[in-house]
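RECORD TYPE: inverse folding
INPUT: structure tokens
STRUCTURE:
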């Protein structure tokens, strides 16, 4: 019916009186409907705000559990943003070149451009693992540049004292670059004199000026006269220096036509920018190492540290790639946890929301009320999580920082990281909560009245079912793809399979819960008596709730198992291959300084030795494509001598002949890599050596033990001129039958001229394995990936189960009212906790086993391996978290439920 005002207005329009009204009266009359609409909207907003306030007060315990989970997600996201931001701005420290105004060095970065399928050309970059050197002719050009007061060639060689203490050999003219100053004595005058670093004399007994010292550099030990002692205020964490004359140092370095870097001291008043431009103007083309296509860099300010620690930025790139991969998993885990906890909190109020809808609350009012609640809760969680992100990020940073790459904390990083984590959670919470309430808010009032009293649906919706089946198929398919790949591609496919399967379990949870009950329900009833019957009936009636309970456990078990099992699986397979390849009985080592090439020749002449092989470690860069994308891979390699190799090492040759692994134009390739590159004996392989030199050696053999020995084997002489220091890490020694003791003594005698610090011991697989035992950096990433994310997922287990338990207070009251005993109810909770824990462990293990099996078969050719102790820790942690999430809230709320008979 029309209102009286509308009928009066229509009458005035028909009689023409509207035209006779004053303009202000007519304007007020036209604005009345708009004001009424605004009033309705304001009333609706006030009603929504009222509902939100009352609901927050009524359900404060449930929302507290949501705050814990979402706050932890904000803290975790913010902490990862903190670490990634710190890595992005990290730079190697300036120590050796603290006294230089600029450093001229070869570019350590290489690139590879390729055109992916149906896309524009893309470029991949990587840092070289070895130092790229400059042509010595560059020194004269730099010295003649405007504003340059002094240009000094800076080379270095590994040195050890007679008692085995490591040091680094430098030329005395380069001392000004740190700077070192003479504290005692004088500069070295000829090839028989040296100046010692004061740090060397402080670390142990050392001769004074005028006395003699035994040093080993390029061969056997030699006695030098100490001419002076030098000290500096920029020593850093590196080994102390020993200064030779420049001609002697050049001879020891072994590359007279090239230099490591050039240190520049500017004239007074010349700034860094002007100095950089002046040097850049005089640099000749192709100043780098022969065979390289890279240019020369002029480094000033903080960039000078890049010339000191050539592989620091390469390590940073590897860490960023790994943290980026883990960060993607973190984001998906956080989203899953936020969605799960918010959905459960809203779902537990389905009856309340349906009743509000039945009594006249509009869908918009309900959505607005829920959105307001979620917004306020997420704001608190974002604030708490942002505050927690900073200390967590600092803890993660402390695990990753190293002496060669300290991670800085600029003033803007903590607030930016906290804001990133908090803002993401705050933006996600509201739409997730409104989406979770969509099934109730869209009901008509009459239908909502019936829904308020109806049981929860036991089956997932059509969309969830279809999406879950698609993701499960995608996960299994991705695992199948991983079996046909190798290396990083197999790892990426396996990780994608694990994530897809976990999300599929979350979507198909109710159906999976019914299957789990079919297996575990009968043993539960038989073992638990009345309490077991109650636990089984409660789980059967609420399969959606059961699925929500075990989903975070599945997440914990699957993620942690994949992270913990991948490394041991590869290590175990690599150990087996390295052990199978090792034929040597003894090994000679000399610590960080290594052994020169002459050491292996001396060992071969020792009585009782049948074969001896020096092993030089380096790395190469391989340009390849993965799914059409250009990729540059840094691969560790071994340089060996073909003479006597069959007596000390057996790579299990499948094609070709290792006796031809000699000279500068030969390489042996692992079987899997040869298959991916489609090469065999007689073909050529395009590679970059460690210093960036392009080579295309001919394949002389294909071998099977590539997981233990690496994907390429080179002749030692092919690598010696392209490494930072051509020193053998070990010398493998094969002795005659029954002569171990005598042969070891003979080897020690043969190596006596190489000074102290040389050790002869029994050979082990670690001496030849291409991947050494897990490094500190790898351990740090494992701690971050497993400890932090696994801890967050366990916290999600506690908060989710606590939320479910809090929502069952009405159910507990009803059971007490009908006569269920206090102990029976507590035992029922214990049995339900066991059911959830066992189901989560079994399903999570199966989910992890699928991608792990695919990864292990494709990369290692074995079954996946996880140390039993590790799995026991996982199971124990999950059980404790499940008990904390169920029993503690049940006991805390049991003062009126479990403590006495309700009535």
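DESIGNED SEQUENCE:
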């Amino acid at each position: 019916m029309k209102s009286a005002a509308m009928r009066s207005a229509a009458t005035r329009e028909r009689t023409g009186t509207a035209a006779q009204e004053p303009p202000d009266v007519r304007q007020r009359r036209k604005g009345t409907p708009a004001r009424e609409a605004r009033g309705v909207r304001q009333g609706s907003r006030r009603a929504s705000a009222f509902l939100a306030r009352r609901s927050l007060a009524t359900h404060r315990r449930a929302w507290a559990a949501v705050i814990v989970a979402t706050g932890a997600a904000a803290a975790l996201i913010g902490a990862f943003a903190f670490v990634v931001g710190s890595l992005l701005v990290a730079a190697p420290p300036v120590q050796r070149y603290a006294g230089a105004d600029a450093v001229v060095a070869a570019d350590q970065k290489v690139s590879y451009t390729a055109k992916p399928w149906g896309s524009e050309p893309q470029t991949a970059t990587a840092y070289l693992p070895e130092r790229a050197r400059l042509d010595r002719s560059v020194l004269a050009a730099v010295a003649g540049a405007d504003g340059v007061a002094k240009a000094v060639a800076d080379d270095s060689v590994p040195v050890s004292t007679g008692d085995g203490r490591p040091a680094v050999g430098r030329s005395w003219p380069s001392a000004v670059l740190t700077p070192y100053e003479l504290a005692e004595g004088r500069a070295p005058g000829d090839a028989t004199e040296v100046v010692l670093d004061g740090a060397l004399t402080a670390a142990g007994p050392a001769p004074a000026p005028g006395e003699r010292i035994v040093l080993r550099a390029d061969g056997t030990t030699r006695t030098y006269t100490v001419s002076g002692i030098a000290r500096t205020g920029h020593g850093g964490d590196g080994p102390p220096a020993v200064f030779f004359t420049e001609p002697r140092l050049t001879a020891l370095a072994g590359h007279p036509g090239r230099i490591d870097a050039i240190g520049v001291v500017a004239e007074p008043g010349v700034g860094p920018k002007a100095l950089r431009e002046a040097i850049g103007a005089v640099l000749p083309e192709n100043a780098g190492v022969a065979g390289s296509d890279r240019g020369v860099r002029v480094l000033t300010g903080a960039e000078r540290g890049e010339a000191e620690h050539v592989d620091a930025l390469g390590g940073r790139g590897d860490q960023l790639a790994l943290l980026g991969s883990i960060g993607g998993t973190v984001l998906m885990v956080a989203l899953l946890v936020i969605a799960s906890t918010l959905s459960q909190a809203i779902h537990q109020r389905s009856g309340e929301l349906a009743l509000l809808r039945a009594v006249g609350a509009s869908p918009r009012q309900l959505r607005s009320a829920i959105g307001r609640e979620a917004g306020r809760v997420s704001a608190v969680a974002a604030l708490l999580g942002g505050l927690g992100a900073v200390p967590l990020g600092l803890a993660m940073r402390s695990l990753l920082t190293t002496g060669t790459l300290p991670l800085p904390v600029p003033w803007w990083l903590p607030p930016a990281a906290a804001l990133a984590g908090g803002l993401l959670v705050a933006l996600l919470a509201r739409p997730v909560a409104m989406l979770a309430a969509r099934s109730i808010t869209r009901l008509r009032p009459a239908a909502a009245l019936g829904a308020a009293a109806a049981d929860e649906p036991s089956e997932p919706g059509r969309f969830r079912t279809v999406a879950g089946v698609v993701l499960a198929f995608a996960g299994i398919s991705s695992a199948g793809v991983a079996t046909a790949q190798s290396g990083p591609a197999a790892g990426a496919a396996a990780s994608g399979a694990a994530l897809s399967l976990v999300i599929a379990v979350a979507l198909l949870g109710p159906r999976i819960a019914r299957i789990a009950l079919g297996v575990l329900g009968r043993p539960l009833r038989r073992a638990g008596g009345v309490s077991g019957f109650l636990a089984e009936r409660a789980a059967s009636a609420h399969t959606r709730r059961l699925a929500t309970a075990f989903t975070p456990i599945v997440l914990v078990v699957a993620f942690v198992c994949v992270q913990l099992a991948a490394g041991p699986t590869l290590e175990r397979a690599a150990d087996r291959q390295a052990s199978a390849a090792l034929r040597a009985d003894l090994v000679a080592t000399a610590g960080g300084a290594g052994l020169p090439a002459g050491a292996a020749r001396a060992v071969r002449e020792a009585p009782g030795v049948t074969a001896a092989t020096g092993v030089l470690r380096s790395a190469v860069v391989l340009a390849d494509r993965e799914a059409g994308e250009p990729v540059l891979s840094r691969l560790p390699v071994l340089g060996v001598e073909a003479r006597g190799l069959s007596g000390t090492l057996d790579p299990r040759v499948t094609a070709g002949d290792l006796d031809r692994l000699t000279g500068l134009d030969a390489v042996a390739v692992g079987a899997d890599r040869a298959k991916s590159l489609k090469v065999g004996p007689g073909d050529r392989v395009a590679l970059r050596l460690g210093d960036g030199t392009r080579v295309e050696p001919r394949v002389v053999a294909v071998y099977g033990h590539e997981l233990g020995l690496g994907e390429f084997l080179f002749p030692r002489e092919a690598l010696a001129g392209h490494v930072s220091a051509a020193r053998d890490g070990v010398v493998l020694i094969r002795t005659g039958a029954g002569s171990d003791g005598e042969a070891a003594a003979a080897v020690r005698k043969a190596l006596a001229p190489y000074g102290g610090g040389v050790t002869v011991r029994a050979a082990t697989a670690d001496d030849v394995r291409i991947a050494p035992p897990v490094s500190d950096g790898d351990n740090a990433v494992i701690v971050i990936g497993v400890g932090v994310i696994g801890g967050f997922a366990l916290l999600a287990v506690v908060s989710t189960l606590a939320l479910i338990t809090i929502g069952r207070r009405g159910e507990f009251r009803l059971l007490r009212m009908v006569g269920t005993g206090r102990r029976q109810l507590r035992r029922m909770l214990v049995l339900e906790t066991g059911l959830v824990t066992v189901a989560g462990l079994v399903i999570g293990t199966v989910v992890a086993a699928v991608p792990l099996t695919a990864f292990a078969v494709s990369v290692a050719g074995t079954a996946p391996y996880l140390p039993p102790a590790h799995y026991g820790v996982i199971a124990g942690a999950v059980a404790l978290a499940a008990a904390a999430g169920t029993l503690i809230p049940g006991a805390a709320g049991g003062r009126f439920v479990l403590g006495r008979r309700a009535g």
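NOTES: The chain has 28 helices and 26 strands.
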